[in-house]
Write a structure and sequence with these properties.
There is one protein chain. Helix 1 runs antiparallel to helix 2, helix 2 packs across helix 4 and helix 4 packs parallel to helix 6. The protein has 145 residues and is mostly helical. The longest helix is centred in the middle third of the chain and has 43 residues. Helices cover 68% and strands 0% of the residues.
């Protein structure tokens, strides 16, 4: 993605090791454990269902916890950006923005940030997808995993 200009159409990130290896292996393992338990019922097979389910849950937690940590960093970066680019009163109002709005606004260029924030604070843009679609000059974020 680093070779292409990032936009709303292509900003979603697939992390191949997770999405195309870890997650499918965990899900197949879970289904396999269920099949084996049905074919040969017993405590061991039932226990492997529990272990397999725990692995699936762990895989999702690993992914979501990493994304939450990145969201917190993005929120901090954007608050600093607001202080540098926006009038003090507006920068303070940005504290009321939800995390989804803040994360969406990170794609806005410096030139259009103030107008977009006015739209968000005014309630005219409420969903992160709406905010992203309203951005004219996309500021890419290729570091997120």
């Amino acid at each position: 993605m680093a070779d292409t200009q990032q936009s709303y159409a292509n900003h979603t990130r697939w992390h191949p090791p997770f999405h195309f290896f870890v997650l499918p292996v965990m899900l197949i393992n879970f289904v396999w454990a269920i099949v084996e338990c049905v074919k040969n019922p017993g405590r061991n097979q039932a226990w492997w269902i529990v272990v397999s389910l725990a692995l699936v849950v762990m895989a999702f937690l690993v992914r979501t916890n990493a994304l939450k940590a990145q969201d917190r960093i993005i929120r901090l970066e954007e608050r600093l950006r607001y202080q540098q680019l926006l009038p003090a009163e507006m920068a303070q109002q940005c504290g009321s923005l939800g995390i989804g709005s803040t994360i969406a606004l990170r794609f806005a260029s410096d030139e259009e940030l103030e107008d977009l924030i006015r739209e968000v604070l005014g309630g005219r843009l409420t969903k992160s997808a709406e905010i992203k679609k309203a951005i004219k000059n996309w500021r890419g974020d290729t570091l997120r995993v």
